[in-house]
Amino acid sequence: MPNLEVSPAPLSTQKIIRTWWPLAASWLLMSLETPTVSAIISRLAHPEISLASYGGVVFPLALLIESPIIMLLAASTALSKDWDSYLKIKSFMMRASACLTALHTLIAFTPLYYFVVVNLIGAPPQIVEPARLGFMVMVPWTWSIAYRRFHQGVLIRFGHSREVGIGTIVRLISIFTVAMTGYWIGSIAGAIVAAAGVTAGVIGEAIYIGIRVQPVLRNQVRNAPRVETPVTLKNFLHFYVPLAMTSLLVLLVQPIGSAALSRMPNALPSLAVWPVLAGLVFLVRSMGLAYNEVAVALLDEPHSLESLRRFAKLLTLYTTIPLALIAATPLAQLWFEGVVGLAPSLAALAYIGLWIALPLPALSVWQNWFQGLIVHSRQTRGITESVVIFLIFSNVILWAGVAWSQMTGAYVAQIATVVGSAVQVAWLWKRSRSVLETVKKREAATVVREKEKISVGSLP
Length: 460
Description:
It is a single chain. This protein is mostly helical. The protein has one domain. Helices cover 83% and strands 0% of the residues. Helix 3 (47-70) crosses helix 7, helix 12 packs antiparallel against helix 14 and helix 12 (267-289) crosses helix 17 (360-377). The longest helix is centred in the C-terminal third of the chain and has 49 residues, at 409-457. The chain is globular, with a radius of gyration of 23 Å. The termini are close together.
């Protein structure tokens, strides 16, 4: 018989899409949270104060406190391969959540709040008390997110990423229901309505994910073969601490940004516009944010590298073009004034900020592609390094804006984010090159082995 040489089939685009779209849909639906909340706040009494309270104090502080557990999604996707690993990571999740919830409670209900918000952030006086009430409402936030993200990772690892998207729908429905109830009542402060809505959303989503993961735990995780290298506290922390530091450092930019905007021209309008503008940009960026978990989950597939990289290029186009169209057409006015309900003076700030933010969707795609490569290698230090670089560059620009005191804070914040993100992506590219070479060598070796099998099988 002739010697048949069949080229190994690359990872199909269809399989990438099947893994990616439920996660992207989840991110997309999640990105609707901020515009929904902002639209309702804008239609309540004192919208500028409420938007600044929630977007400048409540949400940034809540994000900062939960930051050490955000990367549980990536960690669980990568490591929850058998029952023993699942139990050990779950134990870490529960302990970390208890400590962070205690910290949130301590800040919300003691004078420590005033030290953080007044002394460190320097928030305008008129938003300090409304923000504190909202922050009190968000006490259950961190534990709910930790539980949800950990079990979402299990669902993704065992092929049930569709449930992640459905869980986000549950979250949005919960947010909308609670927020609209506050709107109909009409007498509750906007920051409290927003905080109650997003807290109800994460609790509802955590309950749904907790129910949907049970059969997966029972039928798949319990019966999965034991991994060759068991998860221990030492090797888990070696893997996870850089990821946790990454999210902590990333989310530091929120309160640091609030502190800088509070000290720049047009402080209150900038704090009010900042979350609205970030919400729209996040809405468009959401398709690229899911690519981290896609890379982690599919790089184990044979011949996957080029297919995944090609898909990243397509995502770059599909995320940049929509934002450019919004910025360049009357869609911007329709969104900021019609949908979100900003006053024309605030919307005018948002229009210019949107043009400055135009590179962010593309940067998000490549950041998550390079991060996925690095997480797949389990050598996650490079991710932390990239975030430190992001913080250095963005903070230098923010505080240069404070020192110069001639440019509106909302614009300075967008410039800082774009420049910091660009430098961060460049560093991630540099740190992922060795992983790329390792994956290429592995794929080349796989091709050789498969061709040898075909050659041997074709012998008479």
